[in-house]
Amino acid sequence: MMGRHRRTKILVLGKSGLASRLGRLICEKYPVREMEPPNEGLVMIKMRESARNTLFYLGEVLVTEAKVRIGERVGIGIVRGHKPELAKDLAVIDAAWAIPLPECALWESLLLEEEKKLEEGIAREEAGISRTRVNFETMDV
Q1: Staple 73 to which of 34, 88, 98, 136, CB 3.0 to 4.6 Å?
Q2: How far apart are CA 13 and CA 108, in angstroms?
Q3: Is 87:36 a contact under the CB 8 Å cutoff?
């Protein structure tokens, strides 16, 4: 069973609109109660200073967060930026996965396929960057 962090990362970074499709599927088949509509807020970004190994707050980032209930399960969706639809879809998927609804058994293969596409995209990007990399070698004098 895929963990929440990995699943959310795939849904947020994926380009195929998978979160929207899965969220819509659940909303059409099950009663989804919106506990907290998508709303924006600011979250502090915590960083670690490497020399002294101390934590400090770098600044704030805008997030959109939503909370829904399916049956007795609560789902939460939080995403960086102004993305109310994605936040709600993530909350619906989170609640459905927590139950787990029968549809969730089919989702893991879709998520793994999307993760593979993400990894291929990252590999292509890294290959493009490495072609332009400059090799600085030290000359012996």
Answers
A1: 98
A2: 16
A3: no
Backbone angles phi, psi at 56, to 5 degrees: -150, 160
State the Cα–Cα distance between residues 139 and 100, nearest whole angstrom. 62
First to last CA, the chain: 59
Peptide bond into 31 cis (omega under 30): no
pTM: 0.83
Enumerate domains of the chain plus CATH numbers: 32-115 (3.30.160)
Residue environment code for 12-28, b if the CB has 16+ CB neighbours within 10 A, otherwise e: eebeeebbeebbebbbe
pLDDT 10s digits, 90-115: 999 999 999 999 998 889 999 999 99
Rg for the chain, CA atoms, rounded: 20
User: Helix 84-98 vs helix 104-131: angle between axes, to the nearest 10 degrees?
Assistant: 130
Strand, coil or helix: 129: helix
User: How would residue 12 be classed by pLDDT, with cut points 50, 70 and 90?
Assistant: very high
Six token digits for residue 128: 């493009």
